[in-house]
Write a structure and sequence with these properties.
single chain, alpha/beta, Aminopeptidase, 2 domains, 6-stranded mixed β-sheet, globular
């Protein structure tokens, strides 16, 4: 759009325009006048162009937009954030709950040479932990010092984990010195709660088959290292295993009746290696049992609080 200056200054004659705008000073005056009157127009045009460009979104890199096509803005379609990956899976074994038995005022088995079970198993646990961690496994210990968590406290620690197995370490007061035995819990009655939740003292019932596989894997490796040890796991009514909602074993080293403490200490590295390798061998078999009836909770989730009928 052109601006006719003669409409702004109607009294100027053609000759006056020629004389006025033929001089340099007059040309400056004309330029200033044109700028004053055209500036609002240019601002309006620029604003319109900006709004038009803002309403369009450039196409993705490498994909030209078709001529005359307006790409939708992000605001026109709500963004959907992808769900984060679930790195913690129930059916992946990644944690070992390691339980040095006894502790505190409970010394456990005691030998004639002053050997105390509660002290020996804590030292065994330190070597077992290192062997497990070298296999890329996480380790949670029920005690790190000379304290004595209750049976329920130890089970609750295990039941709070996901993708875990439970290993409790003992030194026997009987048996052939220099041997090692693995125990799994004896049969338990099947849960009969109408709600499908499992009583606390039957938490192990749905894991007995898995515990047997786990126990046999560890016992077979112990038998290779310690002559006289059985080839397969044995069963017993082990209190610490009964309330554990996870594959669970008790490893018992014989015996506190040895004449020298060094006889037990020499077994520690072999026991640690057998347990770590046994856990790794068991990993492909690890699953979380599910209650058969629809709508019922899994045993691992339902056995989380001691004392209540779960």
């Amino acid at each position: 759009m052109l601006l006719d200056v003669r409409k702004v200054y109607p009294k100027f004659s053609r000759r006056q325009f020629s004389l006025a705008f033929g001089r340099p000073a007059s040309r400056v005056f004309l330029g200033a006048t044109l700028f004053i009157f055209t500036a609002p127009l240019f601002r309006q045009i620029a604003s319109s162009a900006h709004n038009t460009s803002a309403s369009q979104t450039p196409p993705p890199s490498g994909t030209p937009a078709a001529p005359g096509t307006t790409v939708a803005t992000p605001q026109s379609t709500p963004a959907t954030r992808p769900a984060p990956p679930n790195n913690i899976q129930n059916n992946v074994l990644n944690t070992v709950v390691l339980d040095p038995a006894h502790g505190g005022t409970d010394l456990g088995a005691r030998g004639t040479a002053g050997i105390r079970e509660s002290e020996v198993v804590l030292e065994f646990a330190a070597q077992i932990r290192r062997a497990l961690e070298s296999q890329g496994l996480q380790v949670v210990q029920t005690r790190l010092g000379d304290e004595n968590p209750s049976f329920d406290d130890r089970s609750a620690i295990a039941n709070a984990q996901r993708g875990a197995v439970f290993v409790t370490i003992h030194i026997s007061s009987t048996g052939l010195p220099g041997t090692a035995r693995v125990y799994v819990n004896s049969d338990l009655p099947a849960p009969t709660e109408p709600s499908g939740l499992i009583p606390w003292d039957q938490a192990q019932s749905s894991f007995l088959g898995l515990s047997r596989k786990f126990g046999d894997a560890v016992q077979g490796l112990l038998a290779q290292r310690f002559k006289g040890s059985p080839n397969t796991a044995q069963t017993a009514a082990v209190r610490q295993l009964r309330t554990t909602a996870a594959p669970a074993i008790a490893v018992e080293i014989s015996s506190v009746t040895v004449e020298k403490r060094e006889d037990l200490d020499r077994m520690a590295s072999g026991v640690a290696d057998a347990i770590a390798r046994g856990v790794v061998a068991f990993k492909p078999s690890y699953v979380v049992p599910v209650m058969p009836a629809p709508g019922q909770t899994s045993p691992a989730a339902s056995a989380g609080t001691p004392g209540a009928t779960r």
